[in-house]
Design a protein that fits this description.
- Helix content is 34%, strand content 15%.
- Helix 12 packs antiparallel against helix 16.
- The strands form 6 sheets. It has a 5-stranded parallel sheet.
- By secondary structure, the protein is α/β, with parallel strands linked by helices.
- The protein is globular and about 70 Å long.
């Protein structure tokens, strides 16, 4: 009997079960010889915390329904066999099927719609249950264990002992194969002095935003202004009964007005290091489509040339993110900006042998090329009516506000302009093309350049702490519909961003309040503080007992980027090319696989939700894991052509 343990039953755990079911169904894994145990700390199998089915339906995904997968499709190279004839792992098809079955309009979604997170969670929960039923039907033993795994230790030959807290007691389990897909890290529940007025983690939303935690009429602070923060803001307003209606006084298409319900907080004070909400994703309705184009400058070939130039130097083949990578990124952004402005994304707007081309060659040959010089030459050579301005993307507060003291007015203006660009879509908006066409659509090139220590250690720190924030701000934002709601809440005064940019937070023990002090000694007091940013799994304050035990025992190691005397430890788990932990000794190493958010820092961008019809990376990694399980169990793997 082969004991298989999946630690974490969110999206990645669900995809793993789909592949195990496919292997067993097609005779590539002997189901009768398989004992699968799925451990989930929250007890929510399939949906987990982020896609919790109980969260408010106001919390929307930032990915359109037509892009989401529930398992492998024909494009996934490592998973050629389908689960069942005619089975479709498209989330959109699942929604349409549910709408036909129930008539509930929440499932009546179009391909370009941003669906509720809870609905995607419901789909994950449902398909996980189907995979469990199928495996059991064809002879496998499958157990769903609502327990937190607290320790994993090698035992015997290629076996592990797993300790888990179940019903108040520690239980011991054995496994021959382990897939660690635990998801994001969590903070300790309460810091010194904070008590019940502090929520260390945004999820589950139902808990952090409940009326017992944040009473109606109170003041609440949110530290972070990304997707999790927006989930919290909408749960505290629309999720409590507030509403939105078209703003007939506005000339902007899609403008909304907030209708308070009386149960929301009096003020929601949002802050972050950059003081910015993420920008809206391009709207995919009314014939708008995703921007599909090939890169001209920021390519794997260009990355290879930068490495060859750095080889034999003090950089040892590693790229300087600031001097090498960032100029390439900005040049690609300028090219897409001007191509869309000219109305032809199939043609590079810069001539071969021109000034831009010469600067590009200088950069790849290791000469210092200033970003300002690249931008000036690009604007001059493109000859379009538009001018590419990097500060619009990288320093928008200065671009829109200059020295203006009214932070709220500046953010409102920024969101208005950005929403107008999102409404046009990336095929018609030069600004959205430059942002999304590079920072989102070329993620594979980012990974090729950055992953597993591809950058010098010092510039790797800059990438994680600064440049990666550009990625989140420019291309990993909420939908246009959601950002119109954020804008309406700003205008209504419910959402307060007057000290949004990197304030100092402290707890006033005398009043029991939290205090945010921003620029010019501007101050806001709140009754409750919710953390909306997510720590990495390797940080010292990570609350996972399992990861602390595995780091201390050496089974897992934190990834280290080292060059000479320089070392940077970004926090992610160190793995080999097959995502087996480098800390585990042979023969246990190949029997354990680590995927997902635990790799953040070592591997660029680890989303949980998989995409359809694009040879999705997550689905390939999961399929490769199941292939390895089958091979080590003595069965043939899925044929890969």
């Amino acid at each position: 009997m082969v004991g298989i343990a999946i630690v974490g039953a969110g999206a990645l755990g669900t995809y793993a079960m789909e592949r195990l079911a496919a292997l067993a169904l097609h005779g590539m894994l002997d189901a009768s010889a398989v004992d699968v145990r799925i451990f989930e700390r929250t007890g929510r199998f399939g949906d987990g915390e982020v896609y919790d089915v109980g969260q408010p339906k106001t919390n929307l995904l930032n990915t359109s329904a037509g892009e989401l997968a529930l398992g492998a499709d024909n494009t996934v190279e490592q998973a050629k066999s389908r689960l069942l004839p005619g089975w479709n792992n498209s989330f959109l098809d699942w929604c349409h099927r549910r709408f036909r079955e129930t008539g509930d309009t929440i499932y009546d979604v179009e391909a370009g719609d941003a669906p509720p997170r809870a609905v995607y969670g419901e789909a994950l929960k449902g398909v996980l249950g189907s995979h469990v039923d199928l495996l059991r039907k064809i002879g496998a033993t499958v157990s769903l264990i609502p327990a937190e795994v607290t320790a994993i230790e090698p035992a015997g030959h290629r076996s592990f002992n797993i300790s888990a807290e179940l019903d108040g007691r520690t239980c011991l389990f054995r496994a021959d194969e382990i897939l660690l897909v635990t998801g994001h890290a969590r903070r300790p529940d309460a810091p010194a002095g904070g008590g019940k007025s502090y929520a260390a983690n945004p999820y589950p939303i139902n808990l952090s935003c409940s009326c017992s935690v944040v009473p109606p009429g109170s003041h609440v602070g949110i530290r972070g202004m990304g997707l999790s923060a927006i989930d919290l803001i909408l749960a505290l307003t629309e999720g409590r009964g507030g509403g939105f209606e078209p703003d007939e006084t506005s000339s902007r298409r899609g403008a909304l007005r907030y209708l308070p319900c009386g149960r929301e907080p009096a003020k929601i004070v949002a802050t972050s290091r950059g003081g910015l909400f993420t920008r809206a994703r391009s709207w995919l309705g009314a014939g708008n489509t995703r921007l599909r184009t090939r890169a001209w400058f920021f390519t794997p070939e260009a990355v290879d040339r930068l490495r060859r130039t750095a080889d034999g130097t003090a950089a040892g083949g590693k790229i300087d993110a600031n001097r090498g990578l960032m100029p390439l990124i900005v040049l690609e952004m300028a090219a897409l900006f001007h191509a869309v402005a000219a109305g032809d994304i199939s043609k590079c707007p810069f001539s071969v042998g021109g000034g831009v081309s010469r600067l590009y060659e200088d950069l790849l040959n290791g000469r210092s090329v200033e970003i300002d010089a690249l931008v000036d030459q690009a604007n001059a050579e493109a000859g379009s009516h538009a001018s590419f301005r990097p500060e619009f993307f990288f320093d928008p507060l200065a671009y829109f506000g200059g020295t203006a003291a009214d932070q709220t007015a500046v953010l409102i203006r920024l969101i208005e302009v950005d929403n107008a660009q999102a409404l046009l879509g990336a095929n018609r908006s030069p600004h959205k093309a430059a942002a999304e066409g590079v920072w989102r659509d070329l993620r594979s090139v980012f990974s090729y350049a950055v992953d597993q220590g591809g950058l010098t250690p010092t510039s790797h720190r800059d990438f994680v702490e600064k440049l990666y924030r550009y990625h989140n701000h420019l291309s990993n934002g909420a939908s246009l519909a959601v950002m119109e709601k954020v804008l309406a809440l700003l205008r209504a005064g419910v959402l307060d961003v007057s000290v949004s940019r990197d304030p100092t937070w402290s707890h006033d023990a005398k009043s029991g309040q939290w205090v945010a002090v921003g620029a010019g000694d501007a101050m806001r007091r709140v009754d409750h503080l919710i953390e909306a940013s997510i720590p990495t799994i390797g940080q010292a304050h990570c609350a996972s007992q399992l990861h602390r035990q595995m780091f201390q025992s050496g089974i897992l190691q934190r990834f280290k980027n080292t060059l000479g005397l320089e070392t940077y430890v970004p926090g992610g788990v160190a793995t080999d090319g097959s995502f087996h932990p480098l800390g585990a000794a042979s023969p246990w190493r190949e029997a354990m696989t680590v995927l997902g958010a635990q790799l953040d820092g070592a591997v660029f961008f680890q989303p949980s939700a998989a995409k359809v019809n694009c040879n999705d990376g997550n689905l390939n990694k999961v399929a490769a894991w199941t292939n390895g399980v089958a091979a080590r169990a003595g069965r043939k793997t899925e044929a890969v052509s």
